[in-house]
Amino acid sequence: MLPFNFDYYRPKTLTEAVELFQYFQHQGKHPYFFSGGTELITLGRIDLSYADVVIDIKEIAECKVMGYDGNYLVLGSTLTLTQIEEGNYYPLLSKTSSEIADHTARGKITLGGNICGQIFYREAVLPFLLADSQMVIVGPEGVKVEYINAIFQQTLQLKGGEVLTQIATEKKYIDAPFISIKRRQQWETGYPLITLAALKIDGEIRLAFSGLCPFPFRSSEVEGILNQTDVPAETRIMSAMDFLPQPILHDIEGSDKYRLFVLKNLLHELLETFNSY
């Protein structure tokens, strides 16, 4: 049970959803766009999330699309992680999403909910950061399309009343060689220490991380160093680790020093997999 009550609305269109959000915001209330609801329930129980108006968008048609539009794969934000995995349109995303939470939870967690959530892992964003995907956002000013690396800065930078509706990814990234590795402190159980996702595109490695810092990220500086194939692998790895964002997480799952130890091994595995030693 949640420790607060809320009014529930289920608009049929995105326009109606945005108008409801604006109306209740102007009334001094705290509206919340809802698709899977797992985070509102989880964090609401411990007083880290609150809403007195819930606007459910999960059945709006534009938010449920999954398929190609020309040369772009378009995925709706209210698709569940289970639907993403079963559809398997983007194998790197399927692999990364298949290891989020457990099977039951993945049937409720949505793509948009994971990307826009407060929990710092948010692994589903990593494949899109690597692919320069485009985010389709609807808000009071209408529809806008933004490249993810321009609008995702630790979190997706949405304005009040804006909602992520779709993500479009060019096919060349979908077909690129990839790896996705998740390391946990306790083998296959518990929260992850670090998740690494990587693509090799146009002969160069792109990589993004979750669990290393309090936010998911992709670093052009780290990529630039690791792609210097004329430099020994160990030298590249040690140099790249000097350019990591800060702070490095230090919590019950693992210390900052242990995370860096795990990261070093992951980077060796990455370079070996892509034959960049």
Features:
12 helices, Uridine Diphospho-n-acetylenolpyruvylglucosamine Reductase, domain 3, Enolase-like, domain 1, globular, 277 residues, single chain, 14 strands, 3 domains, alpha+beta, four-stranded antiparallel sheet
Describe the structure.
Helices cover 32% and strands 27% of the residues. It has 12 helices and 14 strands. A 5-stranded antiparallel beta sheet has the order 4-5-10-6-7. The protein has a 4-stranded antiparallel beta sheet with strand order 11-12-13-14, with helices on both faces. Helix 3 packs across helix 4 (91-97) and helix 11 (233-240) packs across helix 12 (256-273).
Question: Any chance you could write out the topology, listing elements then pairs?
Answer:
Layout: E1 7-9, H1 14-26, E2 31-34, H2 38-44, E3 53-56, E4 66-69, E5 72-76, H3 81-87, H4 91-97, H5 103-106, H6 111-116, H7 126-130, E6 134-139, E7 142-147, H8 148-151, E8 152-153, E9 155-156, E10 163-170, H9 171-174, E11 178-186, E12 189-201, E13 204-210, E14 217-218, H10 220-226, H11 233-240, H12 256-273
Helix pairs in contact: 3-4, 10-11, 11-12
